[in-house]
Structures are given as structure tokens and as C-alpha cells.
Amino acid sequence: MTAIVLDIEGTTSSTESVHVGLYAYARPRLGPYLEAHREEPAVRAVLAEIGAATTEEAVKALHAWMDGDVKATPLKTLQGRIWAEGFAAGELTSHFFPDVPPALRAWHAAGHRLAVFSSGSVASQRPWFAHSPYGDLSALVGDWFDTVNAGPKREAGSYARIAAALGGPGAPLFLSDVPAELDAAAAAGWRTAGVRRPGEPNATAPFGPHPVIATFEEIDL
Ligand SMILES: CSCCC(=O)C(=O)COP(=O)(O)O
Ligand SMILES: [Mg+2]
Asked: Which atom of ligand 1 lies nearest, measured to the CA of 153?
């Protein structure tokens, strides 16, 4: 049994589907969402983290993060809540590369343990897998990690926390399109594979010592 931990954007799913589909959905909804939910403790905490005095200032900071694709946790928390509502309302559908659903089904059937570690919040990860064009894939995933419950994706400590949560035996395998994330996982003793998908922003990234795959069919467990 191997624990296989999946990045989303650039690995299971295209960057375009996140940036064009999801970001465009969240952008005009951030301000109204903050206005409607600003008294909730979780939203107040997010506003405090942003350090903005008004909704207008907060939205400006959030939009700037989105423009620069800064994966800041307060932004990811709010986006995740908005996307979860969008998926529940039937207004959003996720995207998976065609090799991914069959691989996930085969690994799950073979008894491997599947988990997600993404900058996208857990609140958005679950509906992303549940509302796929290939059906509900969420039941295949046993554990969900984001930058709140695990920590930053480029720090080894986050992977050590995930490994402790998953338990053994053996080292987990992390699949990602970002070399710095793979470096952090390897530093925590994990197996890694760099995902080089044609046409993706990280298609020419230097993966250094990490084995590189183009599709999940190439993974040898
Ligand atoms: C649930 S899909 C949301 C994806 C997202 O917001 C994101 O930032 C993905 O980053 P990743 O760490 O999966 O590359
Ligand atoms: Mg990624």
C-alpha cells in the first residue's frame, strides 16, 4: 500500500480550468461575500489577516493577489467558500486530465491510499473532485490537506505533518508540477514525481533529481 498525495493545479487538472473557470467566478463575488458574511468569526479572521479596514480595501488586496496568482491563505479561504457555493448551485464543474480518473480508480481499487495537498482550500477541494465531468471522484480520496491544516507547500514541515496524519507504512508519493514543492516533500523523506504536462505553465520547469512523468499512466508504484 502506498499513500499517493496529489497536487491539483497543473497535476490533476489544468491551470486554465482554475484560472479562467474558478478565478473568474470568484472575482466579482468576493466583495458581496465579505459584506454578507463579515460578522462570521472565520471571515473576521480572514479580514484581520488581510489587514484591510474596509471591504473595498480587502477586495483590492484580494484582486491583486489573484492578478499575481499569489496563493495567499486568506484569499484561498474566501475563494474556497465561494466556489463551494458555486459547485453546490450547479454553476461550476471541475476539470481533470483524461489519464487521471482511471488512474485514481485503479489505485483506489488496488488498496492504495489517496490524498490531496493543494493551495486550494479543503472547502474547494472536495467539490472539485465531487463535480467532475467523470462523475464523483471524491470518494476515492481519503484525506484532504491545504495550507491551513498542513502548512505552506514549499516547507518540509508540512509534508512531515501530512505523513504523520497518514501514518505508515512506507514513504508517501507526492505528485506535483512545482519543483520547489517536490524539493520540500523529498526533504521530508517522501518519494516524488514531477508532472510535466504539455502546455501547462510548468511544462519546461527544471525538475532536477525528481523523476518526471507526463501522465499518471507512467507511475510505477
Ligand atoms: C480546488 S481547485 C482550487 C485550486 C486552487 O485554488 C489552487 O491554488 C491550486 O493550487 P495547487 O496547489 O493545487 O497547484
Ligand atoms: Mg500545482
From this structure: 12
Q: Which ligand is nearest to the CA of 128?
A: 1
The ligand with the least distance to the CA atom of 202 is 2
How many C-beta neighbours within 10 Å does residue 63 have?
Answer: 15
Spatial CB neighbours of 150, under 8 Å, sequence gap ≥ 6: 117, 158, 159, 161, 162
In the chain, DSSP finds a helix count (H) and a strand count (E) of 10, 6
Superfamily of domain 3-14+94-218: HAD superfamily/HAD-like (3.40.50.1000)
**Nearest atom in ligand 1 to 7's CA:** 13
**Burial tier of 7 (Cβ tally within 10 Å: 0-12, 13-18, 19+):** buried
Q: Give the residue range(s) of CATH 3.40.50.1000 domains in the chain.
A: 3-14+94-218
**125 C-beta closer than 6 A to ligand 1:** yes
CATH topology of domain 18-88: 1.10.720
Q: According to the model, what pLDDT value does residue 169 have?
A: 87
Q: Which mean pLDDT values do the consecutive 10-residue runs of the chain (221 residues) have?
A: 97 95 96 94 89 92 94 93 97 98 98 97 97 98 97 98 94 98 98 98 96 97 89
Residue span(s) of the chain under CATH 1.10.720 come to 18-88
Q: What is the pTM of this model?
A: 0.95
ipTM (interface pTM): 0.98
